Amino acid sequence: MPAKSNTKTIAQNKKAYHDYFVEESFEAGIELVGTEVKSLRQGRANLKDAWCSVVDGEMLLNGCHISPYDFGNIFNRDPMRVRRLLMHKREILRLYGIVKQQGYSLIPLSLYFKDSRVKVQVGLCKGKKNYDKRADMAKRDAQRNIERELKERNR
After folding, report:
1. Considering 81, 106, 130, 131, which has the largest number of Cβ atoms within 10 A of its Cβ?
2. What pLDDT digit, counting tens, does each position of 17-40 carry?
């Protein structure tokens, strides 16, 4: 019987689901230094405008804001610094090839603890057009209205 993994979400990038079609998602570790883990345990991270890039065969997380730890003094780092993501080299090169040839983007979808390690869920995403965004919003509104009506009828 496999052991259950204990996960706790730190931050989610809800804007990514609005702006992109998520084709695939991957799990990556993240290289953290100083008091960044303590700050993440307080839930102080933001992925809203973050993206991933591949430079010299390494995947980097750009635009992720991890707030400085309150009691960190000189050990705090720049909250917007570029952080290295930890994946196998062949996975990184495969994703890089897809991004370059087919016009996809690598977008971080969530940041979470998994068995006391910080992980990033990275999505292979394709941008939505404005009419796609409007159609998704209309579908969500219709689903909400249906659920609301069913809830009122069941009272």
Report:
1. 106
2. 888 889 999 999 999 988 888 888
